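Researcher: Here's my situation. A collaborator sent me these components and asked whether they could plausibly form a single complex. I don't have experimental data yet, so a predicted model of the whole assembly would be a useful starting point for our discussion.
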Amino acid sequence: MVSKADWEIAPIHIDPDTTEKLFFTDHEWDTIEAAAARIMPTDHDPGAREARVIVFIDRYLSGIDYLYAAADGSGFLQLADKDAHAARARNANMQRLYREGILELDTKARELRAPSFKEASDQIQDEVLEQISGAPKPVPVSLTSREVYYSRLQGNTDEGKSFFDTLCLHVRQGFYGDPVYGGNKDQMGWKTVGFVGPKSLKDTMDGTYSTAEFFIQEYDWEDLVPGFKHSQDPTSNQQQNGQ
Amino acid sequence: MKRKMDPVDVVIVGLGAGGGPAAKVLSEAGYKVVGFDKGPWLRPEEHYSGDELKFQNRSYLWPDVNLMPRTVRSDDKSEARIFNFSPVPSNVGGGTSHMAGWMPRPRVSDFIFHSLHGELEGASLADWPYRYEHLEPYLTKVEWSYGISGLAGADKGEGFRSKAYPSAPLPPTSFGKKFYEGSNKLGINSFPLPMSHLTEGNALGRPAVNRTSFWNQYGDPTQTRSSVATTYIPEALATGNFEVRADSFVREVKVGKDGKATGVIYIDPSGLEIEQDARVVILALGAIESARLMLLSSSNKFPDGLANDSGLVGKNATFHEYIFAVGLFDRDMEDPLHGWTGNYQSGGSTHFYETDESRGHIGGGIIATTQIGQAINAIMPGRPTWGQAMKDADRDYFDYSMKIGFILQDMPQETNRVDLDPTVKDAWGMPVARITNKPHANDIAMSKWQIDKNQEILQAAGAKKTIPVYLGDEFTGNACHQQGTVRMGTDPAKSVLNEWGQTHSVENLFVLDGAGFPTALGVNPTLTIMAHSWRCADYIANIYMKGRSERLNLSPIKKS
């Protein structure tokens, strides 16, 4: 077997502006792009359309070549053996989920007298999304309402989700993921919310990317931790360091 | 046909927090040691980076749930479902390669939980077979070799410490400063929690930690996070006595006619089945997989699983659910909190650690303010999932929210356990671990009380809205902490291991991870696992291996 430590790197790069389709048909591409634009809309900041979320999703669905970027962004890891088999099986399920989901989007749109989902008005598209989500369109966060939640697993995989939940998650991933995967063009997503991310993945590998400037620069532990005194502690760090 | 490798002194299965210190101590003592890990041996400088999608959503480090599944159910009557319960990276380094790295010490009270509280109905409280004082020298050894930053003396309830930390903590982040402000308003003793990294000018002379955003659940490409893959494993290799066999799945511990372990059988990377004999076998796969391997290793002598004559292997599992409260701040009134800054946590407290029965529960745990994460998975329970409301929520609160988390100390219960799933098999064809778990009423009460307290701290810090995340009906294993499945004790009828992690019934079989912990502690277990492993490995190297004759080697009485 080829160990995960020795997976080859295929030197492939994704052009965010590409219109070349690796998985979707023309119609499917337009449909998902339209739905993504309702999920992450465009306003005074860019939305899914400008950030090229559609390219991100198309590459992900095309197979397993775009599953993991190489650490430095120089290409994509080529999975081998057991890992590749498991990933291919998941990918096949995901492709089916999308193909069926797109048919459903069109069917629901036609029930609302639109020729297709992609040609429907924003309002009808939202209505279709409401229907397949099974819940009303989300309303703005309220600072006065009170909700209670329960714990869940860290990490957020796309396994076992419905088409609608999968699509919403993939739109977030395409909008906020590292641009190496084809979405978040020019870091539009990060800029929209104020995340100061790295210029490139490579910058995260050697310490070039740092958040040091966002730490508090002027502080004194004796103020932050009342009752704590450096000088009174016979084994304080500073004494140890000074030895 | 099985191949056989030349025998060695010690085999260690699992090269994470439990196996790492043992590998170092035993190979430095001159014993020939082979360490196995079923995962790969990744090279941090080549394989790790700040890629949120890869590490958080596509689980590059966690085991593929389709290849190494676990199943979970809430009681004997429910059907178990496949779920990535308590996932830890399956690679050389184990959990120390992805963990945020909280490294607080346990407290004196943790070791005498039963003596302090007596019987708790529905729980199986127990004392540890040793005390804090016995572990203290090893806690210090780990802090000073692995590399921990902290502020000695700032935790007012800490037990005796023989030495300060080798490194000062990182400065507070913006959200850390808010946490101190909120705590101080309420008179809560808070302080920079010890972390598994070093800062500038540390006493060990190692590089200061890289202050990236991509920390919890990411591998660290700069290797400035203290991990066993970058400290103890290389130190063990440097002795020339240690060999790592990665991508090698140990499927059975063999037992000889005399009832002693003779070694292990493993599947090598090419799929060959190979035997490795050894004088001592150490299991350190994490509490779930150590118990599983013991149950898989049944034999004529041990039909119910290796060293399982008490019937307790797998039982009394504890998992430390991670729960939290989130506060949303008003961006018109506050400076940004930059909840993605730095190395996950910034400021914590053990103020509510010790039992106060007026709260309606016994025990307690550690709290800390932590990153809300990067943009894809930023934590905001109840965030709208699509449309303008989602975009507005992201834009308004990504930089204006913070989280105070809690490591819930769950009570041991015999019914919370690990056994072998009767139907689901892993990629090697072996039955997987099935986890049965249901929170104790004390766990639920502790969850509610502490998360409500965390909301109070957030409000004192200025949050306009707080959102609680309590413990649910089952543990999800989201803390990735595993304890208790092979508990230590003095009575062989009520425990599997003695105070050296040695099984009562197979004298050369040791379990040196969190599996031995009779109670869960109120702190993250990694420091304690490492110190415990070191202490037991010291015993193996200096007493057990040398045998009785050398232990009783008295100097002859001189005649005048």
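Model: Some features of this prediction you could bring to your collaborator: Chain B touches chain A through 119 residues (CB under 8 Å). DSSP finds twelve helices and 17 strands in chain B.
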